[in-house]
Every structure is written in structure tokens, then in C-alpha cells.
Amino acid sequence: MFRNREDAARQLAAKLKGRDLYDPLVLAIPRGGVVTGAVLARELGADLDVVLARKLRAPGQPELAIGAVSEDGHVYLNHHAPEFLEQMKDYLAAERRYQMGEIERRKRLFRGVRPQAPLAGRSVIVTDDGIATGSTMIAALQSLKPQNARAVIVAVPVASPDRLTQIRRWCDDVVCLLAPEEFWAIGQFYKDFSQVEDQEVLELLREFSPVQKRTGRSPADV
């Protein structure tokens, strides 16, 4: 069990150190993944940015993901969802619109302090604080495919083992500290799994913004 996201990320960084990474970039899935990503970026001397994807919630079960939508609008459905697609067509359309609205809100908020980083030719590490259904991670990975990264590595502290096989199809490598058979929720592997707010994400992104690195001032100061 991890103490918190920072503890998990430091252990994860130890597994990544020594790898041949070219101009490394950590892409974190907000919000909790940005805490993990910031530690990885510091430990590995990498840049930090976000990759925006949102889960599509099951009807009446908002904690259960039936799929996810990426920043570019593409939808990924979990393996069990397509058989119910016809019955859920209207629901999925409405849920996609809702989640795209949240992606747009986050894009305006986060890109205001950290312009989108280029991926072409770089070693890209995609991270979150854990993987349950894998739908959000896969949607994020699908959106990265056209951007010509040198290599895409998924790095997470904990994941459901049966989803890791699917995720491996969308990246070059996977680094995962824990993949226990008895997996119910990501939070069961953290002593402190407190919710991460937008303000904390903004502060972490400011730390890694190009303006901050170049001048020592945040974008809001210039």
C-alpha cells in the first residue's frame, strides 16, 4: 500500500530511472494523475503536461466507466459496452456531450498556464494514479497516436491486471508497480487518496510551464 500519490510516484520513478529517454515528457491524466506526474517529471528531469480524457459513466452508476472520450472527441467503449450500444445510443450521445464540455473547461483552465507540449520525436510517459477499467487511459493513448512520439510508455503505481493486457496494445511499454488479482478500486491501495482540486493541478502545471522555466515567473505574472 502507498502512503499517498507522491509516495507511489517516487517508487514509480525509481523503476524508470536509468532508461534511455529522449527529451522526456510526462503526460498526466487530471486530476490525481497530475500529482503523480509532477513527481515523475521532477525525478526524471522531464517536462510535464496533461492529456485530457474523461470516462463515460454508466447509467445510474457514475463511478462505473463504460468507456471514455478523448480531447479530440473520439470515443472508446469498454469490451462489454458495444453489445448495449443500440439501447444506449441516446444516453451515450448525451454523456459524450457532457464530458466534452468538461474537457473544454479543463482545456481553457489548464492551457492558460501550460501551453500544450509537442510530442513529436520525444519519449512520452503517460501516467495516472492508477488504472481500473483502463478506458480513460486507452482513450488518452489513442489521441496520442497521430502525434509521432518517439516512444510512449504507460507508467502507473497500480492497475487491474486484466486491463494491462489491453493497454499494452496502445503503447510501447508499461511500467506498473502493483497489479493485484484482488482489485476493486484504485483507492484501496492508498492510505491517503484525497481528492485533487483544479487549483493544485494549476500550481503544478505552473511549475513546469515554459515561461516559468525560462524566466522564473509564472504565465500570470507576464
Protein architecture, described:
The protein is of the alpha/beta class. The protein has helices at residues 5-16, 32-44, 89-111, 135-144, 161-168, 198-208, 210-215, and strands at 25-28, 47-50, 53-58, 61-70, 75-77, 123-127, 151-158, 173-178. The protein has a single domain (5-221), classed as Rossmann fold (3-Layer(aba) Sandwich). It has seven helices and eight strands. The strands form two sheets. It has a five-stranded parallel beta sheet with strand order 2-1-6-7-8, sandwiched between helices. Helix 1 packs across helix 2 (32-44) and helix 2 (32-44) runs parallel beside helix 6. The mean pLDDT is 91.
Which range best describes the helical content: under 10%, 10-25%, 25-40%, 40-55%, 55-70% or over 70%? 25-40%
Element-by-element helix/strand order = HEHEEEEHEHEHEHH
Gross CATH architecture: 3-Layer(aba) Sandwich
Q: Please identify the structural class as seen in this structure.
A: alpha/beta
What percentage of amino acids are in beta strands? 15-25%
How many strands, which pairing sense, and closed or not: the largest β-sheet? 5 strands, parallel
Q: Unreliable segments (pLDDT under 50, ≥5 consecutive)?
A: none
Give me the Rg, rounded: 17 Å
The protein's oligomeric status is single chain
Q: Any idea what the shape is?
A: globular
**For the record, what CATH class applies?**
Alpha Beta
Write down the CATH topology: Rossmann fold
Termini separation (Å)? 42 Å
Query: Mean pLDDT, nearest integer?
Result: 91
Compute the number of strand runs. 8
Q: Main sheet: which strands, in order across?
A: 2-1-6-7-8
